[in-house]
Design brief:
heterodimer, A: alpha/beta, Rossmann fold, five-stranded parallel β-sheet, about 45% helix, globular, B: alpha/beta
Chain lengths: ~140, ~240
């Protein structure tokens, strides 16, 4: 498994890409660089027929941590949906997990593992924690 | 007192309609586009006796942003930014080149991000309207476009928080609108798309422009995304 931009020990021989991005510097070159890396790694994973999970922060998604982090988080959700459409017919899962700050790393890891197996979920946005309730995370 | 609006992508179907509607409301327009066809929009606006400052510029460059900055000098107060410029470079994800990805991200996200970052501090009050797309919900063959328009929704939320209460920031997500971009879709594909729209037709650019005018007026809405898609988000 290849894990990029996410804390924790994700090393394993299982196929899969876990891509996380948060704390992006608030300037255009930083945003562009992260999105470009997401594109490159996603394309490589798709070619290698590996499942994909993007991990984002719920606060980033709501725009609470500035425009750069919001751009990347929301961009990954949309990219996951589009890739989800394209990969559905080959049975390759891609999903997104949005996490509240207080969610423990081992819980995130368990959900990453579940979403790599997916079992029918495709292009889905899963929230860990109650922070999204009553908010606008479309 | 007149007010100034920046409208990017002013030469396109939706941009041109936005300019016309805003001119009708008395706005001074800084109409921006990379295409020389901007002159067509400008001549229509001038025939209608609108006050327009055309800027033919590439907004992915510092020089282009500087040209917009120069156009603002001496204009009435800046109270509206409409980030409408957008391009597509469609391909399936496995076939998409890095150049295709970057070109779309630069125009559809980089330009709005930099325009807001640079010019919103000049606004004492007003509104920003980002023209996203219904494709932010996902659309086959548009990994780059969908990501850019989703990211545009993201910066809409972030700037809505950081610029409140001075400036309201919202996004519009048009579906299939009768523009040159849509008419470039093969006819048989376009017909199938229209068949899947509950309202049974493409939208008109003026229907997006009307919503821009509404969001430009003082109100209680900020950080929202409004879809103009004829119900397409619900149908199979």
């Amino acid at each position: 498994m290849r894990a990029v931009g996410i804390d924790g020990d994700y090393e394993s021989n299982e196929p899969g890409l876990v891509f996380g991005a948060t704390g992006i510097a608030d300037d255009w070159p930083s945003i562009r660089s992260v999105l470009l890396e997401a594109f490159r790694l996603t394309q490589l994973a798709v070619v290698a027929v590996e499942p994909i999970v993007y991990v984002v922060s719920s606060d980033d998604l709501l725009g609470r941590n500035g425009a750069a982090s919001a751009a990347v988080a929301a961009g990954l959700v949309s990219a996951g949906r589009t890739a989800g459409i394209e990969l559905a017919n080959v049975g390759l899962p891609i999903n997104v997990i949005a996490i509240d700050d207080e969610i423990p790393g081992d819980q995130v890891k368990r959900w990453v593992q579940r979403m790599l197996e997916a079992d029918g979920a495709q292009g889905e946005l899963i929230h860990l924690g109650p922070g999204h309730l009553g908010k606008a995370l479309g | 007192m007149t007010k100034t609006a920046i409208v990017t992508g002013a030469a396109g179907g939706i941009g041109s309609a936005i300019c016309k509607r805003l001119a009708g409301e008395g706005w001074t327009l800084i109409a921006v586009d990379a295409s020389p066809r901007l002159a067509d929009t400008v001549s229509i606006l001038e025939e209608a006796e609108a006050t327009v400052r055309p800027v033919e510029a590439n907004l992915t460059t510092d020089e282009g942003l500087d040209m917009v900055g120069s156009a603002i000098e001496g204009a009435p107060p800046l109270e509206l930014i409409v980030n409408n410029a957008g391009i597509t470079r469609d391909a399936r994800l496995v076939n998409m080149t890095e150049d295709e990805f970057a070109a779309v991200i630069d125009v559809n996200l980089g330009a709005p991000y930099q325009i807001i970052s640079r010019f919103a501090p000049m606004m004492k009050e007003g509104a920003i309207v980002n023209i996203s797309s219904r494709a932010y919900l996902g659309n086959f063959g548009q990994f780059n476009y969908s990501m850019s328009k989703g990211a545009l929704v993201g910066i809409t939320r972030a700037f809505a928080l950081t610029l409140a209460p001075r400036i309201r920031v919202n996004a519009i997500a048009p579906g299939l609108i009768g523009t040159e971009m849509s008419m470039a879709i093969p006819a048989d594909v376009r017909e199938r798309m229209v068949d899947s729209i509950p309202l049974g037709r493409m939208g008109e650019p003026e229907e997006v422009a009307d919503l821009v005018v509404f969001l430009a007026r003082p109100g209680y809405i900020t950080g929202e995304v409004i879809t103009v898609g004829g119900g397409r988000s619900l149908s199979r």
